[in-house]
Amino acid sequence: MAKASAPGKVILVGEHFVVENQPAIAAALNLRARVLAEVLSGDFRVEVESKNLSQKAVFQREKANKESPLYPIYYAALMTLEYIGLQKPLKIFIDSEIPPAAGMGSSASVAVATVAATAAELGVKLTLEEVSRLAYQAEVIVHGKPSGIDNTIATFGGAIAYRKSEGFIRLEADFTPVALILADSGIPRSTGEMVRRVRALKEKYPRIMDPLYHAAGHLAIEAGKAIEEGDWKRLGELMNVNHGLLSAVQVSNRVIEELVYAAREAGALGAKITGAGGGGNIVALTWKEDGRKVADALRKISRKVYVCDVSAEGVRIEG
Question: Which residue, 33, 44, 47, is CA-closest to 116?
Fold first, then answer.
């Protein structure tokens, strides 16, 4: 048996706009998805079990149920097997700290950990670039046209600036003075659906939306500079502006706005949607000493609040 884990993520600025080749900035969270891979005996199949979803499924090439929520995990394992050139029956077991459908990169973290655990179980050491590329193929199954940022941050960890046409660069930053507080809106949503909705709006109003996308790109560049300079107040201000841009593309709602303003009023440096919007989580940037106060304010209106640090480590083999 082999075990691997990968961190969740938060997008600090740039979601939705990154899909159209604008830069975005993401950071890895100290919440992790853990995957155990084990070679089985008998005919080829992939048995997948998710502790979090309380679901099990068995996938075979001819009988793979593509509607199953576990299908992308099977697909990540299958792509890894095909890439390595070995067709071994497998069992994949998932135990994740990252909530699904919450804008925290759950599916990508599981895909990355699945690829790494599968390869390790077969005695193959993949490069980080190979792990990320294989996991991206599973993300296509989940999201249709993913940006690639989720599998990248889950693989490499830390904080990155990412642009689809150029890849990513690591941001050298010391996040110890600040905390990231995530609060769940309690509204489920589909990333793929929200991406399609925003794309349709852009296609309908290109002369209005194009300048907005360019502004979001410039904002991400400034945010990257603020992070590397440790100017957290400036980053918070830019996060607030980015939230306004996301509201403009119609991925906010009343519940999200209540969370965002509750965080700001409690002393957050900045607060915004993180991820696709329409539901899921908001993220607030706070000084470390203010984290509890902001979290307590959010707990009054959110069913689940996470107080997180940035994880410098990406995917890792745990045994």
Answer: 33
Asked if 282 and 272 count as a contact pair (C-beta separation under 8 A), the reply is yes
Q: Where in the chain is the domain with CATH 3.30.230.10?
A: 2-172
The pLDDT of residue 33 is 97
Q: What is the pLDDT of residues 251-289, one digit of tens each?
A: 999 999 999 999 999 999 999 999 889 998 999 999 999
Fold of 178-308: Alpha-Beta Plaits (3.30.70)
pLDDT in the model for residue 293: 97
**Segments in 59-121 forming alpha helices (H):** 71-84, 106-121
How far apart, in Å, are the Cα atoms of 203 and each of 79, 242, 243, 275?
33, 21, 21, 21
Number of residues assigned to the chain? 319
For 105, phi then psi, to 5°, come to 75, 30
Provide the phi-psi class of 27: left if phi over 0, else alpha when psi is between -120 and 50, else beta: beta
Query: In whole angstroms, what is the distance from residue 116 CA to residue 136 CA?
Result: 13
241 vs 27: CA distance, rounded Å: 19
Which is the catalytic residue, given 43, 150, 210, 309?
150
Residue 14 scores a pLDDT above 80? yes
How far apart (Å, rounded) are the C-alpha atoms in residues 274 and 277? 7
Parallel, antiparallel or unpaired: strands 159-163 and 24-39: antiparallel
Residue 193 has pLDDT above 80, yes or no: yes
Note if 184 is an active site residue: no
CATH class of 2-172: alpha beta
CATH 3.30.70.890 intervals, the chain = 178-308
Q: How many angstroms separate the CA atoms of 144 and 172, rounded?
A: 31
